[in-house]
Amino acid sequence: MEKQIKHKDLLGLEYLDKDEINLILDTADSMKEILERPIKKVPTLRGKTIVNLFFEPSTRTQSSFDLAAKRLSADTVSVSTKGSAVQKGETLLDTLKNLDAMKADAFIVRHWASGAPHFLAAHTDAAVINAGDGMHEHPTQALLDMLTMRQRFGRIEGLNVLIVGDILHSRVARSNIFGLTKLGAKVTLCGPPTIVPEEFRELGVEISYNIDEAIEGKDVIMGLRIQRERLEEAYFPSIREYRKFFGITRSRLKKAQENAVIMHPGPVNWGVELDYELQEERDSLILDQVTNGVAIRMAVLYLFIRGEKIHE
Questions:
Q1: Distance between CA 211 and CA 66 in Å, rounded?
Q2: Which residues of the chain does CATH 3.40.50.1370 include?
């Protein structure tokens, strides 16, 4: 019997088991083969309608989902806050109900409020895919990160992964923690104590406040974007100080494994999270992550929309 996803929606990796995560990664491998063909399109989701509900600015994620849907021959509709009825006072639920009445098959939801996709999923029979909700999760980003690691190392289990930066506010970090630990990787978090709380240890990770120690022996070093508004909130004194104590530099990378790789969900603040000289680093997988984003999102759309799911 063909393996299937047990859920109607993809709300976060916290809710998927190891087999489901591996199924998505394996399916994405098949989708990458499609992307390498001269004609990069298959009729798999012909006749299906996918609505992009993006209430936060996005370039890579939205365009990646849109391209993934088109590669599978689905019809797409994009809705953003600007220019929509939301600006006139329409509630998120009303927006969903109106679009749902048009018989959409899936909603891709990106929202500034944690839990927004979960709320919407409870009010529609269509599949809801979380494209990032507040400070909660960003499951497809973590899935493409894991796909990229697996392609480079041939495995996830046993990898030593270091995530550096603003863990407290990062939905990418949370999804990666859930996914990587379920697949057997060892995860270490590093950054200033104000944005790397000790409570994260409860998720089965290690925490370090010294990057020179934390980077030793790591296979994967992932930087997270430092948002300028964190300065105003006094999480750390200055960008210069953050770079001095937690910036990923070539000299620091020498302490990692010889075949260690650099990753970043983007956009990168060059000269802050990663040194400028690492832009051409041969072991940077940042562009591979972008490429894998389309394959992962094709896999997710295929698995959650094709109509053969086992509903919970």
A1: 37
A2: 13-137+291-305, 139-285
Read off the pLDDT of residues 263-306 as tens digits, 9 standing for 90 and up: 999 888 898 899 988 877 778 999 999 999 999 999 999 999 97
The helix (run of H) or strand (run of E) holding residue 242 is helix 239-246
Q: What predicted TM-score, i.e. pTM, was given to this entire model?
A: 0.92
What are the angstrom distances between the C-alpha of 17 and each of 9, 22, 94, 181? 14, 9, 32, 11
Question: 13-137+291-305 in CATH: which number?
Answer: 3.40.50.1370
Q: What is the DSSP string of 55-115?
A: -S--SHHHHHHHHHHHHTT-EEEEEESTTSGGGGT--HHHHHHHHHTTT-SEEEEEESSTT
CATH ID of 139-285, from 3.40.50.150, 3.40.50.1110, 3.60.40.10, 3.40.50.1370: 3.40.50.1370
Q: Give the per-residue pLDDT at 226.
A: 86
pLDDT tens digits, one per residue of 115-142 = 999 999 999 999 999 999 999 999 999 9
* Rg from Cα positions in the chain: 19
